[in-house]
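Suppose a classmate hands you a notebook page containing two proteins, each written out with its sequence and a corresponding row of structure tokens. How would you begin to make sense of it? This section walks through that situation. The first entry is reproduced here exactly as it would appear on such a page.
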Amino acid sequence: MTDHPVLIAGAGIGGLAMALTLHQLGVRCIVFESVRELKPLGVGINLQPNAVRELGDLGIGTEALDRIGLAAREWALVGLNGNDIYSEPRGLLAGYRWPQYAVHRGELQMLLYRTVVERLGKDSVRPGHRVAGYRNEADGTVTALVETADGRREVRGSLLVGADGMHSAVRAQMHPDQPPIHWGGAIMWRGVSPGVPIRSGASFVGLGTHRHRFVFYPISPPDPETGLATINWIAEVTVDASEGRKNSGWFKPVEIADFIHNFEGWTWDWLDVPALLSRADGAYENPMIDRDPVPTWRDGRVILIGDAAHPMYPTGSNGASQAIMDGRALGAALVEHGLGEAAFAAYDEKFCGPISQLVLRNRGAGPFGLLNLVDERCGGTFDNIDDVIPAAERSAFMAGYKKAAGFAIDTLNAAPPTIAAGARVGGKVDA
């Protein structure tokens, strides 16, 4: 086993979860992050019970998650006239042994970052260091080519984990002929507004059609004085993508007035979409994008995880969860096979194919595919959903997605820990 540390490209959710896993397994690591200062950027995301379980095994429990988000209670789809298409309990209410959380993405990243620095030391994460490429060495090590404000330098490691996101330089070198970013025409505007939580008080609600929809859920408990929570929302419209993305930038701040007209008239006695949008300070516009799957995530002693491996549409609310699961599953492979290429090969063989299928499943609308069916069969307006899609068909559709995404209730509840307590790389388990 080499004395060189494991190198991680990217201090996002996946990279930081990987660092905490390696530390748990007794493996030294260094995280390189391209931005010079980590800040709590982004809006709301969901953490599925499988990821919450893994965070708990890393010592980040519900008390910490309660400070940055809210335990989810319901997931629901609603038609254009406000009638329910499908709803189900989530987290503990659904029978999972672990809750599901709606959290602020940036706050989760900062929680993981603070935990990494606390456990691994302040020099364990190096902002302003971009991994621009790599080189597998003949002696069984790997060299990361790291760019800083002072120029480029080389850092030797035992392994390199590419967790550098959608625009991964590690992936680009591994697959230089990969197709360009895929965009199917959906444009999302994302933001947060103060609002009164509806339904269960912690419900994820999607309404509209697969080409024109609005999704919202609270990411904080209500303020005791005002009764208002922070409501995360995604407003989405699908346009003709045949000529590609013409607007400048893939992710940019915009004014609410730029897109609110798309949701005029979306007002019911239980929800006023234009009013909710108007209470936001601003929004971010970004197209719903992913990349075509690649045949492998590894190259010698280099492996991809998270969005670098499988960037996917956010329709399944499991992108961050999958990044966490990647790090944990890779850690389990290292425990079983040791700190070398065999672990990467085993991990790649087990997960690359199935998760690539999940990418394509999400491209086909993921769990929001029920909206597609409703639109096809009745145009989105109905009196009784059972007359449009029978209950058994709706339940089977959702069960299929949960199984593919790795959080089917019975399977997850019965599964042993991904990494046994006290496990260390090399196969030894401490008493």
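The notebook's second entry, a different protein, reads as follows.
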Amino acid sequence: MNSPSVRALLVRGMLAGLAAGVLAFLVSYVLGEPRVEDAIALEEAAAHASGGGHHHEAAPVGRALQATAGLGTGVLLYGVALGGLTALALCFALGRVGRFGPRATAAFVAGGAFAAVTLVPFFKYPANPPAVGDPATAGRRTALYLLMIVLGLLLTAAAVLLGRRLAPRLGGWYASVAGGGFLVTAVAVAYAVLPGVDEVPAGFPATLIWQFRLSSLAIQATLWAGIGLLLGELAHRHLVPERAAGSPADRSGSSAVAA
């Protein structure tokens, strides 16, 4: 793919990430922020009960600003960055993962990234609300989470390459099954080898933890789904010639590249 097309797709990916970030912000504000508020209330109640509530310093940024402008800015920047990276991955994947058009390839890339970056770490080190986790182990927990993301990306890429290598001999279906089986097995081994983290305080509501974790997963799913669908549509409009919408002969001739 030439440089102008890469630049054009990169811009479209960032725009798709921006739009998906707006959707993710709405989900985060509606589903995630109430759980954060509940967790903070529990943390403050526990601090007051232990007699240490009056030692807490006021936060430099108020909760109202954190939950609106702060949250929105962070999610939008995150979405733009992920959209740009997904567009670069799409440039590499087009024509290399089967006879898929831009829409299907973008959905494939975004779905694979969601599995590698979100799902693989989530089932080993799920997100926790405030008041859960020892501040002294924050660095260790962050390192383990990032390690799980890196492993997820590497193992997902290895599974795709394995499927491509086996496709000529086994066919597309069985090659995909073999690649998926390799990925599940490798991730299971990583789960067994890496240390677990269990720092939930005694008496902390289990319902609140799972509501927070599910809302976190919903935010990520919204972001990646938005990027995959919007980038696929924008890439399709850029890459598929306009004449593909013309005569029946043209439409049939372009069906190989249209998703």
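A careful reader of the second entry would note: Residues 248 and 254 are 10 Å apart (CA to CA).
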